[in-house]
Every structure is written in C-alpha cells, then in structure tokens.
Request: fold
Amino acid sequence: MGRKLASTVVLWDAETQSPRVLEAGTEPSAEDAKLIDNPKAWGKSAAPADGDDGDDADDDGRPAQSAKKAEWVDYAESLGVELDDDATKQDYIDAVDAL
Reply:
C-alpha cells in the first residue's frame, strides 16, 4: 500500500495533453507517485513510498537536512526538545542528533 497525498496535486497527462488532478487523501499509482517531487504534496514527513532521492524526510519523520527551520522546530518539539527562541536551525539539528 502506497502513501496518501496530503495536498491536491495536478499532473500533466502527456497522453491526453491535459492536466490531471489527484485529490488530497487519495493514493496515487506508483507511476504517478514517482512524478510527484514536491514534499508538501506528501505532508511534512512523507515521501513517495518507492522514492529516496537523498533529500526526502527519513521514515521516522526526521526532516531533510535542507528542510526549513520550522520543520526542524516541529520535529524537535515532537521529540521533547525545547530551545530558546533565538536558536538556529542547526541548533535544532544538533539537539535532535544528541538524543
């Protein structure tokens, strides 16, 4: 069973030369899932079931190194890490790595 989309996605259908809408909450085919490269389509901790381009979140929900600070804050807080408001993204990454 594949992942469900967290957001609605529009793919270009080369065969019909028209857009195709995949609604949030649906499970795209494996072929379609390979075409969806925006991590927001899968939710902050999800990635295509068969894809691992080295930049997607880990299976445990850990954000990619390139993720925004807000994603690291959310992830760290979900693990019980709390830092000062002036903490940097790297501070959150280091705190998570220290667990």
Observations:
- The two ends are 31 Å apart (CA to CA).
